[in-house]
Amino acid sequence: MIPQPDIPLPMNEATFLSMSRTQGFTIEVETDRASSLLAQMVLLNRILCEINDFNIKAAETTLETAYIATSISALSAKLDNWLAHLPTHMHDTRENLLSFASQGLGQLFVTLYLGYYHYGQMLFYRFLHEDLRGYVPRTHFYANKCKEHAVLLCEIIYRSDEVPGCDVLYNMVGHVLVIASTVQIHILLFGVDGESVARARGRLERNFCILTRLRRLWPTLDVCMERLQAFHRACRRSVDTSFCMDRWMVRFLIEFANPVSDKDSGEIERTWELGEIGNSEALLGDISER
Predict the structure, then answer these.
(1) According to the model, what pLDDT value does residue 286 have?
(2) Rounded Cα distance, 5 and 108, in Å
(3) Rounded CA gap, 110 and 226, in Å?
(4) 280 within some domain
(5) Largest CB tally within 10 Å, which of 102, 109, 135, 227?
């Protein structure tokens, strides 16, 4: 949906929930909507639209290096600015999560940060491949930001499972977790620090369990599992090109509801059963050998 800046942002959720039958909508609604979780989601989605448009444009046309650098710097600044202007009670802390959970808004709080962390990994994903081609400080910085966003995305999902009333079970969680899992695969393949590689392996195993659980609730997540299979096959063929931000990768990142064909495949592989992708030990062992 195209953002509509002239539409007022949603009111504070606590104010809405406190409305009585007698008050109805006669209650005075505050003019400052910054305290609304839904309002912050709307503001974030406007940035997502720009990130998606940029990734598509970069994949379909040849852009000047300077233009790419300027665009990413501007979009990164928008994400940073959004985070910097968040009210303190909305910061991603366990205390705030518990506070929103006590109001019945824990799932909404988690969803807000799933969006923020996912948009960051979407913006900086291209630098995972570029960072492998040689050390450039800016590229290395952005590649690390992608990894940081992916790790924090996993961590807030884990915390949501631990705090009652915060578990996020809608089907888009499967898609963003698949993307975050591919970043963990990158760490597993190219990480030089044994401790970070071990943590990435642990996150992958935990993500498989979560994806399997979500798939029982949402049969349409078969598509997500199939997409992860396609990514795994791309890594098996060539780890040097599997993270390249080409048209295939843009489709993989954006078209979450559609299956993807194999990347640069000149051969026909047998169809995997979904149970195989659920066997995290077999998959991780196969990747580690490469």
Answers:
(1) 54
(2) 22
(3) 26
(4) yes
(5) 109
